Amino acid sequence: MLDRIRIVLCETTHPGNIGAAARAMKTMGLSRLVLVAPKIFPDEQATAMASGADDVLAAAVRCNTLAQALAGTTLAVGLTARRRDLSHAMMPLREAALQVAQEAHEGEVALVFGTEMSGLSNAQLDACQLLANIPADPAFSSLNLAASVQVTAYEVRQALLQDRGATGRDHPLATHDEMEGFYAHLERVLLGSGFLDPANPGRLMTRLRRLFARSRVEREEVSILRGILKALYPADDGSSRPFGKES
To answer: In terms of CATH, what superfamily is 2-161?
Structure first.
């Protein structure tokens, strides 16, 4: 099940942190590293800091966007030190790791980390179904990126060692790609129907993402929801671009 867990590093600034993160992963048996728009990679500093985890670096997948990095996943956990208003459910890392272990029986899981200076953006956190934090000292809670990866990888490994087995789910969960397609469809319908005002969108889509993230939607259910949207608003032909999305 370790092979179903990927570590995703977003917009990493220092190549040494990529290498140190690869080393942290390998000590806990994780090997799937995904890099989203790293500033510098590959780089000899990354190789030096990997200190024997060269194979993890060599197999690293580089993506331009977080959406590409999360393709095929059924659970993405965003690691953040800050509580975010109206974001998804937040839980301590140890508790989240137990959920990761269960999910890895049936689907692909991503553990997502942000930049060294500012962490994950609100938009990146919206792409996750769960938020987790390392319960460090509140007076000094900012961990080095590689240290965060090390602690997270350790907790996930411990959770797998205590694994209680699969959840017994009868139907597969929707993947990240399928849910993003649904969110885009939903946003188009809300705009077309006039329910969502593009001049004053507020945080409606963030709230709706939070709702469906809690629900852990199954693949068949996504098809039902999109069928309902199509029946209610047949004018949507799928060609329009959702509000606020870049082409």
So the answer is: SPOUT methyltransferase, trefoil knot domain (3.40.1280.10)
- Give me the average pLDDT of each 10-residue run along the chain (247 residues): 96 97 98 98 96 96 98 96 68 95 94 94 92 90 93 97 68 93 96 93 91 92 96 75 41
Cα–Cα distance, 242 to 246 (Å, whole number): 9
CA separation, residue 7 to residues 4, 31, 119, 182 (Å): 10, 8, 15, 25
H-helix segments, the chain: 15-27, 44-50, 54-58, 66-69, 93-103, 122-126, 145-161, 176-193, 204-215, 219-232
> 176-232: which CATH architecture?
Orthogonal Bundle (1.10)
Compute φ and ψ for 74, nearest 5 degrees.
Answer: -110, -10
Q: Are 78 and 130 in contact (CB under 8 A)?
A: yes
Residue tagged 């597969």 (tokens): 172
- What is the domain partition of the chain in residue ranges? 2-161, 176-232
Single-letter amino acid code for the residue at 116: E
